[in-house]
Sequence to fold (632 residues):
Amino acid sequence: MTKVIKSFDEYKEVYQRSVEDPEGFWAEQAETFTWQKKWDKVVEWDFHNLDVKWFVNGKMNITENCLDRHLADRGDQTAILWEANDPKAPNKTYTYRQLYEAVNRTANALKANGIQKGDRVCFYMPMVPELAIAVLACARIGAVHSVVFAGFSASALADRIKDSECKMVICSDFNDRGAKHIPVKAVVDEAIALGCDSVKTVLVHQSTGDPLAFNSAIDKWWHEEVDHQSAECPAEQMDAEDMLFILYTSGSTGKPKGVVHTCGGYMVYTAYSFKNVFQYDDGDIYWCTADIGWITGHSYIVYGPLLAGATTVMFEGVPTYPDAARFWQTIEKLKVTHFYTAPTAIRALMAMGDQYTEGHDFSSLKVLGSVGEPINEEAWHWYQDKIGGGKLPIADTWWQTETGGILITPLAGVTPTIPSYATFPMPGVQPCLVDTNGVELEGDNVEGMLCIKYPWPSIIRTTYGDHERCKQTYFSTFPGKYFTGDGARRDHDGMYRIIGRVDDVINVSGHRIGTAEVENAINQHPQVVESAVVGYPHDIKGQGIYAYVIATGVISDEQQFIKEVLAVVTKVIGPIAKPDKIQVVTGLPKTRSGKIMRRILRKVAAGETDSLGDTSTLLNPEIVEEIKTGAK
Ligand code: PRX
Fold:
């Protein structure tokens, strides 16, 4: 590994160099990995036609760098430290050697079941170690993993399986999560019944051992397929630009898209960012509380930490089970040094009262992290005071599924922090702010739309099966630049503060949800004519979901109707997309060309009805009064 940045002056120096000589900078980072064949050229890129290649013609396998490379020096060090949902259950650990063997066995089992390089494998699995193991097993043999968060519905799972024509689904039998007992495999069965014809095998890991329906035509038990396999499986030679994984994420229009990341660049960037942002030292215990179903889990539970030879904690449960002290007890019990979580969790736990944090030993902690949504000042201070003893650095990390890794962030304890600021770009990352005409805003104290004007190694390469959509979504709004969809401010010191999405994407409890997706789901209720969904400020979740719904005829029992609409959304997407508020209306404010005036709906949802602006040019100005009066 190249040298980790250790001072603010060094940061400034390295940043400057990364802009003046990006190829030299990234070559230096990449040289520290095991390559089967070195690259011919560091980067080739064209944002206009969207063609980005890093480490051109380099050959490698990411798992050799996560596992094989560490065997000599840290074979006996814990790689994965697993904390079960039940706090009384023993921790499971995998040393680097044990993880190497488990991954190889699983890789051999995948091969024995006909999985080859390039095949897509879908995961629908809770946070058990086997999820990380099988993800790495895919990477070992060059299969492409597509992890679907196990809170999505059968219908959402089926859409994702079909879009990337997955040949296998890997799941658990059941999952104990908090006080819930979740029938995971049954959801997969339901998804398969929705016509996922590409799936030839469902590999079922026995997590709880409860009885379940087993279809011997396609279902296979993990233990029967994996346990007897050899613990050696040669790593497939991958081109740096071969696909590593697909991860579906929501946008402002249409169905979720499969964000594609490739092997070489993703490896270099996740390891580089992990080391520098978290300043991880040997012997540290790093815990990221995300789920591997999201990008944070991919990059900063699995790949980044393992590439860096770290000990990474995987937590099966939820922050409030058995009570709201669970995170804090676990930090104490596992002697966690690095704790990385989402503002929504901090706000929820803060609201529970200080009795849950008091009396816990946080002396092991060195670094705190935040991810997924803007962190408000109150939560930032509470986090630092109550958990960080008033002194620990907080890395407020800004990034996205599409960026693969953290782009704007403090380097913990090295560069300055200000509450609610993501602060400075990582060396190698060149952000800029533009106005609505795409003109770059120079200087400081400016606010605009956040773009990145030079590629970094883990930038999105395409959206699966639809390259044009990727080009349109991210590279056409401001030609020549990657557009993030976020608005941001740059202050007098050049520090960035992320304001939030400027498109029709809402961020609910750190989960990204497209308003169009929720509308499509609501519209599947037979009595719904039309709907409009917007985000509104929510104390705990950051943003809540507010749905305006036009129904056919007269709704005699509004409560019942709302219940049914919520049930439809749960069925089509999953409980995470359920609106917090539903208002039944007789019309929606529209422009003369028939476009819904979302600005008005957002204001009403936020309770800002005094500042609606001029509504007289609407096609139906009278509807505004009705909506205001009926607002929840
Ligand atoms: O709006 C930004 C917000 O989360 C979006 C990306 O969501 P997703 O792809 O699901 O990835 C989340 C985990 C990286 C961004 O467009 N976001 C993420 N981190 C921050 C943030 N907003 C403010 N501050 C952050 N630190």
Summary: The chain has a mean pLDDT of 97. The chain is about 30% helix and 25% strand. Residues 96-112 form the longest helix (17 residues). Residues 249, 295-296, 371-374, 396-401, 422, 484-486, 498, 500-501, 507, 512 surround adenosine-5'-monophosphate-propyl ester (CB under 6 Å).
